[in-house]
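Check this:
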Amino acid sequence: MAGSALLVMDVQRDVVDIVGVADSAGSGAGYLPRLRRAIDGARAAGVPVIYVVMRLPAGDPRASARSKVMATVVRAGLFAEGAPGTEIHPDVAPEPGEVVVAKRRASAFSGSDLDLVLRARDIDHLVLAGIATSAVVLSTACRAIDLDLGLTVLADACLDTDPELHRVVTENLFPLWGDVLSVDAWLAAIGSR
């Protein structure tokens, strides 16, 4: 899949803890191993893996009180630069040389150099995976279609705290914007299983 990249977004220790990915009975059951398969398959097929993380300066003065989400995030001390919880979960950690993009808001493009990274590598198609479907995945997909980028969403490599919201977005909205596939279907399409 020349021109494609897999974006692994917000799979950080604090986020994984919040959504309860480790809970084998919850909606996150099997999430990290499934995401790991997608990452390993992308690498095997020569598809670049780009990690996106949320990192905010402590007490981020750019976080407006008008933004309910950002005010809550800053008050809770989430995503503070240098905090252990902002690290990418070790089960899906990047290999040396893989790009890690730091963003400042929901979209992978917000306050980051992702667009520059994509242009420098001639990437015109994004394969999205991450937590949460209704936050980073949705926001990034919106921006990607505005930039005329091709889009694939790996539905079972995305996760949300609200399973019904995840279902509605992946079944009703994302198919209007691009392809929605399972990890296994995507791996078969790129010839990596």
